[in-house]
Fold this protein.
Amino acid sequence: MSHKTENEMIRLTIDGQEVEIEAGLPIIAAAEKLGIKIPTMCYLKKISTTGACRVCLVEVEGVDAPVTACNTIAVDGIKVTTSTPELERQRHDMIRLMLVNHPLDCPVCDAAGECDLQDICFDHHILDQPFKAQDVAMPKIKDWPLIENVPARCILCEKCIKVGHELTGIGDFYVNEVGDKAYIDRNEGQNTIDPYIEGNAVAVCPVGAMISKPYRHKARCWALNKIPSLSFAGGSLEQVELNVKDAKLYRITSADDITINNGLLSFDSSFGYEFVNSTARLGVPLIDGEESD
Ligand code: FES
C-alpha cells in the first residue's frame, strides 16, 4: 500500500470492484464513481467535510477500526468494504443516537418527504430506540426575519455554517454551546449583511432545522411540481426549479452537480419570489393604458 501525491491516479477496490480515482479524494468519492451509495448525513460535496454523523463508516482491510468514508482519503491499493453486519450495527446505533429526543413532529415538519433523517431511518429499518437522554434542546428561534431555526431537529452537520463560510460568504452561523446543548446560532453584528438571510442554509439543511419562513407550512414537497427554469434574480443566471402547484409558485430550489450554480441560490430565489403570485401583476399586456384583447 503506497501513498501517492495529488493529481496522480490511484486504484482501490470497493466491495470487490476496482476503481481508479484522482489521488487526494476521499473513499466516498471512489464509491460514488462505482455507483455504490454509502449512507451519509453530514457530507456535502461542495463544502469541506465535517465528519460529524459517523454513518458513512466503512472497513478498510488491515485497519483495526472502521473509518469514515467522507473524510478518509483513499490511498492506492486499499480494499474497502462498505457493508457488513458489524458496520450496519454501528450505523444503526449512530442513527438511533441522532434520534434521541428528536421531536416526532414529522407530520407538520416542512422537511417531511425530503428529510435525510427520515430516509436513512426508513432505509435502515430503524424501529426501536434503546437510548435515553435528558432533553435539553434549545427552544425554536423564531425572531430571525426569514429563517426559523428548530434546534431540537438539528443533527449538527454544520452544512448551514459551511455553505456560508466557504461558498457564499454571507453566512455567519456558528455552533453555540457544547455537547447535547449545542445548537446553531448566528453572530450578531459581525457582517454588514446578517447571516439569517442565507437561504442556502435552508437549502442544505438535511432535516427540518432551518426552515424558510415564506415557505413554512405552505405546501407539502410531494405535492409540488418542479419546473426547470432560470432564476429571475438580477443577472445571477441560476439554474433553478420552480416549485409550483395550481399555477402558484411556492418556493425555488436548485440541484447540486447538475447546475452551473451548483445548487446555490441567490437571496431572491430563496426568499424574494412571492411577487410572482401577486394578483396585482398584469395578466395581459396594456396598450395605451388599456388592457389589450
Ligand atoms: S457523512 Fe461521514 S461522518 Fe457524516
Summary: The domain at 9-95 is CATH 3.10.20.740 (Ubiquitin-like (UB roll)). DSSP finds six helices and 14 strands in the chain.
